[in-house]
Write a structure and sequence with these properties.
The chain is mainly α. It contains 13 helices and 2 strands. Strands 1-2 form a two-stranded antiparallel ribbon.
């Protein structure tokens, strides 16, 4: 239920919870605030920026797919759905963003000094306090929505902290970091949406398989974000797939990992007696495949375009698959 943004890693030699202070750092020039100008509490706008609302859409879309796939009345369960949306987006995803900014604050002070923490708008250790408070609130909401939702929230929060915080810092390795992100972008929110409507029961196994398959494919989507700062990642010791494998091989891996789980979904839809939805998902995969050669030839240049177009087809297929699962559970022809 978590989303993450790939950012420069923090200076590993620095104490991860060292007081960052309100200083603004630009190269070798350090700007110190004037006496009396130090902020004691973060401003609401700075907190909102820290939580990055723009990143909430992806997990909330996956959660919506989970809600659709659950096969239960939606209007009658609007309270549970609203709570699940709150959990997947503002809370767990927001936690991951606050956590990431806190542990990246030293490098952000150089590369992005206007970010809430290095700029002093979120002063002292408030970034850490917000991440901790949002984690606790996420657990409370998850518990209120049911035991399986709580389990998903715990897994999401563990991955959120492991992604950014020492000693694990999964973001430093493309295999581990992108796996965590893929699970938190698609699988956990999908599972959460279905579990919130399952009356404290484990969702149908077919729903769980769909969530896991689209999580696996999302690994490839995450790789698409790794082509924009390869040299910087190399200098900072961030071992993304383009750094480890090279640009072209990483692009091929991204395409393959996106495509294969969708082919498995198509096979499952056919075997489940949903040929129409299988044909729609097939068409969406064909559209992605048509764009893959363009991307593989020029990964650095074409990654943003393929990210926008290929990913749109991918998430559309998610929703089609969710409606197919809903029809299967309801016994619709």
């Amino acid at each position: 239920m978590t989303t993450f943004q790939s950012q420069a890693s923090l200076d590993e030699a620095a104490d991860p919870i060292e007081e960052s202070g309100p200083r603004l750092v630009r190269s070798s020039v350090v700007a110190r605030p004037q006496p009396g100008s130090v902020r004691r509490l973060p401003s609401p706008s700075a907190v909102l920026q820290l939580l990055k609302p723009v990143t909430w859409f992806a997990p909330m879309w996956a959660l919506g797919c989970g809600v659709v796939s659950a096969g239960v009345p939606i209007v009658a369960n609007w309270r549970s759905i609203a709570g699940a949306v709150l959990l997947a987006g503002p809370l767990v995803c927001g936690t991951s963003q606050a956590c990431n900014d806190w542990f990246d604050r030293h490098v952000d002070a150089i590369n992005e000094p206007k970010r809430p923490i290095p700029s002093g708008r979120v002063p002292g250790r408030w970034g850490l306090y917000i991440a901790i408070a949002w984690s606790a609130l996420s657990l409370a909401v998850g518990a209120a929505l049911g035991p399986w939702v709580l389990v998903a929230a715990i897994v999401g929060l563990v991955l959120a902290w492991a992604y950014s915080a020492p000693p694990l810092r999964l973001k430093l390795n493309g295999w581990w970091g992108n796996t965590a992100v893929g699970l938190c972008y698609e699988g956990l929110p999908w599972f959460t949406g279905a579990a919130a409507l399952a009356a404290h029961r484990l969702p149908d196994a077919r729903i769980v398989w769909l969530a896991l398959l689209y999580s696996a494919g999302a690994f490839g989507i995450m790789v698409l974000n790794d082509f924009k700062a390869i040299e910087g990642d190399q200098k900072l010791g961030i071992r993304t797939l383009p750094v480890q494998l090279g640009v072209r091989p990483a692009a091929i891996v991204a395409c393959a990992v996106m495509a294969v789980p969708q082919l498995v979904v198509i096979a499952l839809l056919v075997s489940g007696g949903r040929p129409f939805e299988a044909k729609v998902v097939t068409a969406l995969v064909v559209a992605q495949a048509a764009m893959m050669p363009m991307f593989v030839r020029q990964p650095r240049k074409r990654a943003p375009l393929y990210n926008a177009t290929g990913t749109s087809c991918y998430v559309a297929g998610m929703l089609v698959s969710a409606f197919a699962m809903r029809a299967l559970l309801l016994g619709n022809p």
